[in-house]
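Researcher: Next sequence.
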Amino acid sequence: MAVAGTLYTYPENWRAFKALIAAQYSGAKIKVLSTPPQFHFGQTNKTPEFLKKFPVGKVPAFEGEDGFCIFESNAIAHYVSNEELRGTTQEAASQVLQWVSFADSDIVPPASTWVFPTLGIMQYNKQATEYAKEEVKRILSLLDSHLKTRTFLVGERITLADITVVCTLLWLYKQVLEPPFRQPYENVNRWFVTCINQPQFKAILGDLKLCEKMAQFDAKKFAENQPKKESSKKEKTPKEEKKAEKKEEKKPEPEEELDECEQALAAEPKFKDPFAHLPKSPFIMDEFKQKYSNEDTLKVALPHFWEHFDKDGWSIWYAEYRFPEELAQTFMSCNLITGMFQRLDKLRKNAFASVLLFGANNDSSISGIWVFRGQELAFPCFPALSKRFTESASGPQQSGSSFYPPWKDGRLSQP
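Model: Next structure:
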């Protein structure tokens, strides 16, 4: 008996497409609720009734006519599939699972980093985007090699592996994989076009138009997608302000008790700029950062840097991650780098860094170049960070990274 039920999602959700395409092959009867009033994403999925069925509140989520409820797109797609899609042998089923897992672990992170800024969903970061492009090239090369002697990913018929990987690559092919970029991967292109032109795919995706010109970051769309601040209240006249002040004086609000965390924060000394004592420098870091973010690095940004750099007011450092043997998956290492930058946000005005991940999964290293205000390592200037440092014979060290001495005679000194 074919599966039947309701799929909750939002419009054009590529994750939901996996289950819907699988249902086209298996004959599962799926009713889709994706728009108000039946389903309002961000509201309906937060109601007690929805959370009782799907505790994580995520979509897509599937509710069978028999009351069976399941969330996570891969699990739903597997549930509504038939044996042919899941793999008719134990070996084939394992290979299908292999590619489904590969799509989530290897394709989704770089695809999101590259595509989301072009849709206005996420802020653009040049370094992260360039790294994502290289990861996409690696993935396409891997798939191209695999498909060189194969029509589909597993066996000679479409399986859930093909459905999942096609859906995961969907926005790449729609937004950024312009003809010159995708041209080297002929086998992947042939396979992708073959899949999306199957009746079962077209029933869900429609006539898909491949990218003609690589989409770029849309700052206007990104700004529009940000939550709007509450409109400011109408300005009061001086008389109204005096009346309000008198009312406040008559009825003082009772002081709220601070919890332990708030008490600790209140007890902290006010932040003082540790670089305030340094003489003014002619080198303006913000100007360089703008050129680095928005213009060609080699032709514009770096020449600007060397032309204006003040070696007396700033110093350059080279850093390496001290424990490369602990680095496993490359996307996890990228998250490690991103997390570090988030924790060092107070250094934004007085520092610049270009940190790169080199290598592949389970064989990688992290190193980078840092530019700091002054001639000393900047981290100890911040009490919140100083505990992470120790002094050794080789100089200051951050837990996790080793720094080499700074600029000398126009060059970085050797480690």
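Model: The first helix runs from residue 14 to 26. The longest strand covers residues 363-373.
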